[in-house]
Write a structure and sequence with these properties.
mainly beta; about 180 residues; about 30% strand; four-stranded antiparallel sheet
């Protein structure tokens, strides 16, 4: 298991090192299994069995920074962890996911803009709460807002964007407080 924290630190823990308990046991806090710093929070737990060259680890921050790194770079890390992404002072990591390295992926955020491709920096202060990684070939995109507005269209209609682009608008909101 890989644990990624809000400060961009990545820790690694083999599953067999997690103590076994009974069905009704309380369990053990993760902070007792890995060396977390004070006030550090785990933002993503990523299970993986292989650190294949064809896979990448994608990091998403609160300020819209997206970093994509080969998964194999995290194969052997120390128990104190490794700095996976350098963050600005007012930024924090929101989540991290594994993606296929040679495929185009589409990443969606809670706002009206969608993000596609590799490294995108300095976007709006959006939260990437409900990110999904989707293979774009022969797929449909279905976007639904909190207020019930919806739209469905083929992903082939979404233009591919460069790495410093601001994204593609999937749906325009009728109400300002919708998302």
């Amino acid at each position: 298991l890989m644990f990624v924290t809000d400060r961009g630190q990545l820790y690694w823990l083999k599953v067999y090192k997690i103590p076994e308990g009974s069905r009704t046991a309380k369990g053990k806090a993760v902070v007792n299994l890995i060396n977390l710093q004070a006030e550090e929070k785990i933002m993503a737990i990523i299970p993986t069995t292989d650190f294949d060259e064809s896979k990448s680890l994608c990091f998403f921050t609160k300020n819209g920074i997206v970093k994509r790194t080969n998964l194999s770079e995290y194969q052997n890390i120390r128990s104190v962890g490794v700095r996976a992404i350098n963050l600005d002072e007012n930024d924090e990591l929101v989540t991290a996911i594994i993606v296929q390295r040679d495929e185009n992926e589409i990443f969606t955020s809670g706002g009206e803009e969608n993000l596609e491709n590799q490294e995108i920096e300095n976007l709006d202060d959006e939260n990437f709460e409900n990110e999904e990684s989707i293979n774009t070939q022969d797929k449909m995109l279905f976007a639904v807002t909190k207020k019930g507005m919806c739209i469905k269209f083929p992903l082939a209609k979404v233009r591919e964007i460069g790495r410093v682009s601001r994204g593609v608008t999937a749906i325009k909101f009728k109400e300002k407080n919708d998302e």
